[in-house]
Design goal:
The complex is a heterodimer of chains A (about 120) and B (about 120).
Chain A: E1 5-7, E2 10-13, E3 19-24, E4 31-37, E5 44-50, E6 53-56, E7 65-68, E8 75-79, E9 88-95, E10 105-106, E11 110-114
Parallel strand pairs in A: 2-11
Antiparallel strand pairs in A: 1-3, 3-8, 4-5, 4-9, 5-6, 7-8, 9-10, 9-11
Chain B: E1 3-5, E2 10-14, E3 19-21, E4 24-26, E5 32-39, E6 46-52, E7 60-61, E8 64-69, E9 74-79, E10 88-96, E11 107-108, E12 112-117
Parallel strand pairs in B: 2-12
Antiparallel strand pairs in B: 1-4, 3-9, 5-6, 5-10, 7-8, 8-9, 10-11, 10-12
The chains are: A mainly beta (about 120), B mainly beta (about 120).
Chain lengths: ~120, ~120
């Protein structure tokens, strides 16, 4: 079946602009995660959804970052008033189960460059 | 706090040989999961293998095996018969237990860049 998809794949924004990054998880997956990956680093957790509920947003770096998943499927990560330090790859992952050995499957990521 | 350490920033291996990528972890939890992901230059994170903390046998998936040494808190990835297509970044990650409101978020190491030489 289809994997996790993300759009756009690449986004260039001028400092101060708002951006919206989209994630389409694997159909039927309950859990959805957003991660931020800076250049040369491992991904870092941003936020977690269980269906439409955002249960953990402890990794969001500032109140300029906002995520939603209103119908429990597609999710959008929005960054307001982008700053240069927001430049990174934003990865979305989904998993089928709510516990146990469920594996997170990742999308190709959105590479955000803030000029 | 939980932590994953990958001490090899880069590794080289000759095609068709085996290679071991190191991973050590730190956790106070008794229940946790360990994952390895491959990230080619295209950027997508590809799941390779999983080991649960209570699994008594080392996990294997095709050419990938996980050398799990619980007492030493290490979870090294072994790739047998390396192929040119194995050249990529490899990340070790840990999920600490399972908490309903956290859904099993992953903590990643810094990664190891593997280059396979023909």
């Amino acid at each position: 079946g289809a994997g996790v998809s993300q759009s756009p794949r690449y986004k260039v924004a001028k400092r101060g602009q708002d951006v919206a990054l989209r994630c389409d998880p694997i159909s039927g997956h309950v859990s959805l995660f957003w991660y931020q990956q800076a250049l040369g680093q491992g991904p870092e957790f941003l936020t977690y959804f269980q269906n439409e509920a955002q249960l953990d947003k402890s990794g969001l770096p500032s109140d300029r970052f906002f995520a939603e998943r209103p119908e429990g499927s597609v999710s959008t990560l929005k960054i307001q008033r982008t700053q240069q330090e927001d430049s990174a790859v934003y990865l979305c992952a989904s998993s089928a189960l709510q516990r146990g050995t469920d594996t997170q499957y990742f999308g190709p990521g959105t590479r955000l460059t803030v000029l | 706090a939980q932590k994953i350490t990958q001490t090899q920033p880069g590794m080289f291996v000759q095609e068709k040989e085996a290679v071991t990528l190191d991973c050590t972890y730190d956790t106070s939890d008794q229940s946790y999961g360990l994952f390895w992901y491959k990230q080619p230059s295209s950027g997508e994170m590809i799941f390779l293998i999983y080991q649960g903390s209570y699994d008594e046998q080392n996990a294997t998936e095709g050419r990938y095996s996980l050398n799990f040494q619980k007492a030493r808190k290490s979870a090294n990835l072994v790739i047998s018969a390396s192929q040119l297509g194995d050249s990529a970044m490899y990340f070790c990650a840990m999920r600490e237990g399972w908490v309903s409101n956290q859904g099993g978020k992953l903590i990643f190491g810094q990664g190891t860049e593997l280059s396979v030489k023909p």
